[in-house]
Amino acid sequence: MRSIYRAFKKHYQLCKDVYRKMAATGGFKYELHFTQESSEAKVETPDAELTMRFVVVMRRFLNPADRLYYKTMWSTLQDEFGGAIPGEVKTAIDKKINILTQGWMKFEMDGDVLTAERMYEVIADGVRFGHNEQLAEYLRKIEQVPLVGPLFWHQFYSFTESALSVASMIFGAISAVERTDKYKQLYDGGEPAVTRCIYCLSTDGPFKSEEHIVPEAMGNNDIVLPRGYVCDPCNNGVLSRLDDELRTSPLFIVQWASAVEFTKQGKLPEVSLGDITIKRTDPLNVTWIANPGSDAIRAGKQCPDGTTELHMHTSLPKRFDEVLVARALCKIGLAAVALDFGHEYACSNRFDAARRFICKGGEFRNNLLISQWMTMRTDIQMQYHHLPEVSGTVMEHHIYGVILLMSLEEEPKLRLNPVLRSLGFVSFPLCGKRRRTKFTLRLVPPPDKAA
């Protein structure tokens, strides 16, 4: 639970920072204008880009499926530390949550009473963060009612803004709980139970931070190693650089803009590739923009279904480096082994070659296999085969639709066989003289639609 409380506080600070920047450009306003002939309603928001950033980062607190959902967090905190939270604080937060969910007005349509929370859900799940067609149709119906559509959208923004004050109160309650003896005994009893880095094997530390197994910048908010597994010098040094190399690799950089909702700075993802900028403009849309005067994006022939072919050509920001990618994959793999088999096992000499490769580079007597067939996906998955009594730890990574095979050990070697060749895999040796391997990623239909 300690990691969840820390994650909530960290994300609150991010939301607060984005909100301050947004609020400096204006506020949310709902205006009505009446004349003898007509009436008009409109919603005014602060700077459009900052407003979108604020709505996006606040989604983690307002999405019931997220582990940082404010109601879940408040319930968890009370269940675990209810006796340590003053009664007046509980009452104040409960009252604030009730005001938030009900809102300053209620809207009734066809006998359905819509609270502020329900209005937020209709827009969030129908058109802003999801494609729930039933809710989208419901919203379209509401928007046809004079003056009501803008009011609905204003309530969406107002609800999001008010939720920040609830998050602030929960943040304060967590901070107060962290000072109690019970919390310190459970989660902050001095040094972690183990203090040896699984990467450099140092015991010097310090060991103040948790390690994200898959890079946080690639969308992993939740799966982490506890304190004591990775020293701060490695976490903030070589591992951070490998995480960044993986994120910006030509293999993944285009998909990254579609896969990640916001960056660690609370910005919407944006990537520059030569004369093309790929920019997430809202949670459901990514825009490709050609530089003025450039022919990087050209219209082709019109298809029978009414769509138009687009031809794009651009340059990547850097060349593909198989060694850096392999080191980053090994970093993920060793962390996964530590999570599944324990700290002591991950520190065993079985993984010394991988450790040297991760921390210092150089040669690793094995191969990296990558399939040239990819699908455009926004998720990351990793599975591996490992038996303590059998040599070999083969990892299968699916990163944004690209499939990579890597091993945490130098034996047995990963080699191409007829099956792997038939699946489009290419081998990249990680030892000996580096050679340029011809490699082209090709988009293919998803497996269930493939011929």
List the main descriptive attributes of the protein structure presented here.
451 residues; alpha+beta; five-stranded antiparallel beta sheet; three-stranded antiparallel beta sheet; 20% strand; flat
What does this structure look like?
Strands 14-15-16-12-17 form a five-stranded antiparallel sheet. It contains 15 helices and 18 strands. A hairpin with a 2-residue loop joins strand 8 and strand 9. The protein has helices at 2-23, 48-62, 70-81, 87-102, 116-128, 133-143, 148-178, 181-187, 232-236, 238-247, 253-259, 322-341, 343-346, 352-360, 418-422; strands spanning 29-34, 39-44, 107-109, 112-114, 211-212, 224-225, 270-273, 276-282, 285-290, 297-302, 308-312, 367-371, 373-374, 380-387, 390-399, 402-407, 425-429, 442-443. Helix content is 41%, strand content 20%. It is of the alpha+beta class. The longest helix has 31 residues, at 148-178. Helix 5 (116-128) crosses helix 7. The two termini are 46 Å apart.
Distance between the termini: 46 Å
Q: What's the number of extended β-strand segments?
A: 18
Helix content percent band: 40-55%
Going across the biggest sheet, name each strand in turn: 14-15-16-12-17
Instruction: Give me the secondary-structure category.
Output: alpha+beta
Write the SSE topology.
Layout: H1 2-23, E1 29-34, E2 39-44, H2 48-62, H3 70-81, H4 87-102, E3 107-109, E4 112-114, H5 116-128, H6 133-143, H7 148-178, H8 181-187, E5 211-212, E6 224-225, H9 232-236, H10 238-247, H11 253-259, E7 270-273, E8 276-282, E9 285-290, E10 297-302, E11 308-312, H12 322-341, H13 343-346, H14 352-360, E12 367-371, E13 373-374, E14 380-387, E15 390-399, E16 402-407, H15 418-422, E17 425-429, E18 442-443
Parallel strand pairs: 13-18
Antiparallel strand pairs: 1-2, 3-4, 5-6, 7-8, 8-9, 10-11, 12-16, 12-17, 14-15, 15-16
Helix pairs in contact: 1-2, 1-7, 2-7, 3-7, 4-7, 5-6, 5-7, 6-7, 10-12, 12-14
